[in-house]
């Protein structure tokens, strides 16, 4: 009981210290992040202060990511997850895709801070070449292929065929966090013709609806994957290929 009290007290003290001194850099799960990035909102900064940013994904990755994995990530964010994976398995085995061109320099700065260099491409993964609409919001986690309001900035982003990229990379672990973009992206993947063994995905039912989220889960299961119930963390789910 007393131990829990002191843990709670020191945690609150650490958060208060970080807020008061407007901490510029923070180290979370061994990854150094610059909090002064333009796209890091107060809400995201608070998650870092609380040591809570992307905790669901990291908690699962710590248990399932192995040296034998090759990682393909859809939605780089600020480069946090790809940096973590690179630290564990090596940059040469991590490939990440980010549609928002305004984030690329921030992502590369994160890589520089952490002495990693995973492969990054600024494209939308689709089933055709050409361009698609992408909607840019002030906070990076709100930008996606889904238009959330009428004041959002619409830009055109180059497309790349998702199955072509998967064939070239040959990933064993697919990580997806694309702010509702899973609605259109997941059904395009030909899971029967690739070597993906694990899928770690954050669903966004608040953007695409519960019914569509459920249908996507059913689709993945129909592709000979099992939903690992022991790894469910809010909207973050892990699927593993049936042996």
Considering the chains and any ligands shown, give keywords for the structure.
243 residues; alpha/beta; Rossmann fold; seven-stranded mixed β-sheet; three-stranded mixed β-sheet; 9 helices
Secondary-structure topology with pairs:
Blueprint: H1 2-20, E1 25-28, E2 31-34, H2 42-49, H3 55-64, E3 71-74, H4 80-89, E4 94-97, H5 104-113, E5 119-121, E6 124-126, E7 131-136, E8 153-161, H6 162-169, E9 173-176, H7 182-185, E10 198-202, H8 205-208, H9 210-222, E11 225-227, E12 236-241
Parallel strand pairs: 3-4, 3-9, 4-5, 6-8, 9-10
Antiparallel strand pairs: 1-2, 7-8, 10-12, 11-12
Task: Walk me through this protein's architecture.
- This protein is α/β, with parallel strands linked by helices and 243 residues long.
- The chain has a single domain (52-241), classed as Rossmann fold.
- Helix content is 35%, strand content 23%.
- It contains nine helices and twelve strands.
- It has helices spanning 2-20, 42-49, 55-64, 80-89, 104-113, 162-169, 182-185, 205-208, 210-222; strands at residues 25-28, 31-34, 71-74, 94-97, 119-121, 124-126, 131-136, 153-161, 173-176, 198-202, 225-227, 236-241.
- It has a seven-stranded mixed sheet with strand order 5-4-3-9-10-12-11, with helices on both faces. A three-stranded mixed sheet has the order 6-8-7.
- It is globular and about 50 Å long.
- The termini are far apart.
């Amino acid at each position: 009981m007393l131990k829990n009290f002191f843990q709670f007290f020191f945690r609150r003290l650490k958060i208060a210290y970080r807020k008061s001194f407007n901490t510029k850099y923070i180290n979370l799960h061994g990854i150094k992040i610059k909090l002064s990035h333009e796209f890091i909102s107060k809400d995201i900064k608070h998650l870092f202060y609380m040591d809570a940013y992307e905790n669901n994904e990291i908690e699962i990755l710590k248990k399932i990511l192995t040296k034998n994995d090759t990682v393909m990530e859809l939605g780089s964010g600020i480069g946090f997850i790809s940096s973590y994976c690179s630290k564990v398995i090596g940059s040469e085995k991590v490939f990440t895709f980010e549609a928002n061109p305004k984030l690329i320099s921030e992502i590369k700065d994160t890589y520089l801070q952490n002495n990693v260099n995973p492969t990054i491409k600024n494209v939308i993964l689709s089933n055709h070449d050409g361009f698609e609409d992408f909607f840019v919001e002030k906070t990076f986690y709100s930008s996606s292929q889904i238009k959330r309001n009428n004041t959002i900035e619409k830009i055109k982003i180059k497309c790349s065929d998702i199955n072509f990229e998967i064939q070239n990379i040959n990933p064993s672990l697919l990580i997806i966090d694309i702010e509702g973009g899973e609605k259109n992206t997941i059904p395009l993947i030909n899971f029967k013709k690739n070597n993906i063994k694990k899928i770690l995905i954050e669903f966004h039912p608040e953007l695409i609806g519960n019914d569509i989220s459920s249908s996507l889960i059913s689709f993945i299961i129909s592709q000979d994957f099992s939903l690992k119930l022991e790894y469910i963390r809010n909207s973050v789910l892990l699927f593993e290929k049936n042996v």
